[in-house]
Amino acid sequence: MMRLHGKVAVVTGGGSGFGEGIAKLFAAEGGRVVVADIDGAAAERVAQEIDSAGGAAVAAPADVTNRGDVDGMMRAALDSYGRLDILVNNAGVSHRNKPMTEVTEEEFDRIYAVNVKAIYLAALAAIPLMRAEGGGCIVNTSSTAALRPRPGLTVYNSSKGAVNIMTKSMAVELAPDRIRVNAVCPVIGETALMETFMGLPDTPENRRKFEATIPLGRFSTPHDIAEATLFLASDAAAFLTGVTLEVDGGRCI
Known about the structure:
By secondary structure, the protein is α/β, with parallel strands linked by helices. 45% of the residues lie in helices and 15% in strands.
């Protein structure tokens, strides 16, 4: 039995990395997916690859910090599939690993806009649609940075701390609407942000330094994060809300 049969999901940051993995797994499990990404060509590529594999997906170019774009990606779900069941707030950015005194004000504002404000904007657009269906599910991509922060990423870490608290508060506030809200907290992963988090070139030696801090001895992969997100979005997690699930190979212990 496909775990998301008949469900419609919007996945932000769906054009690469964790978001691409989530969008493809959701589609493979019977979900109909709106692949939203600020890089429209990347979103289109992922949607076409899902279609080619026999799934259902449409691309929605969207800057998650722009309310009009966010409304547009929800409209894409309604126009294409007639409803919205699942929202995955996966888009995220970081500054390069460096002292917080070297983070520019522009970097700070961008990180909080993409990582925090975007969840608020998406909620404004998604909650009425989920209420109309009698419920729904929101999954936010947080980070181990919110739980076990590494030095040099203070502004990013704090933005993900906000994601965790928003997740728990939204879970309580939206429970009467039967809208579940959870988060996944990945450890550093094999994505385009890896060098940004390390603050070092991506060499085997530098990778080993970070892998040594993860008890299971490897970075996370898009498939790891997609499987955890799928679980939280599926009916198997029907009684879970307000959970910030560590997908981290033991890093937060």
